[in-house]
Design goal:
Blueprint (H helix, E strand, L loop, with lengths): L12 E10 L6 H13 L4 E8 L4 E8 L2 H9 L1 H14 E11 L10
Antiparallel strand pairs: 1-3, 1-4, 2-3
Length: 112
């Protein structure tokens, strides 16, 4: 399987950009992260996500949703709420969340 960016979708749609710096505390993080991926993938308005971490420790995850209502369902999910609290209490030194409506989107993929 090759690495590919999330495909371009027909605008408008919504993106949530979560930038963070983590603490050294990994306790429970991998399991919670896997569970959050399961939950968000079950959201009918979820389009996909991309995530990367720099060698210096800055993490950026961009999640794409069909509309603000779909993002709201994700934001209000009770397990997600508990994970966000755990993140603030243990896993993140700092984070920023930006939410935007995508007005333009296109892509390119080399064939072969």
């Amino acid at each position: 399987m090759s690495i590919q960016p999330v495909q371009a979708f027909e605008p408008p749609y919504v993106m949530a950009v979560f930038s963070n710096v983590r603490t050294p505390d990994e306790s429970g993080y991998p399991e919670t992260n896997a569970r959050m991926n399961e939950i968000v993938a079950a959201n009918p308005g979820f389009l996909g996500y991309e995530s990367a971490r720099t060698p210096g420790g800055l993490g950026i995850t961009v999640a794409y949703f069909r509309d603000h209502e779909s993002l709201g369902v994700w934001r209000e999910d009770m397990e997600h709420q508990a994970a966000m609290k755990q993140g603030r209490d243990h896993w993140y030194e700092s984070y920023t969340l930006h939410v935007a409506t995508v007005e333009r989107s296109h892509g390119f993929a080399r064939n072969g």
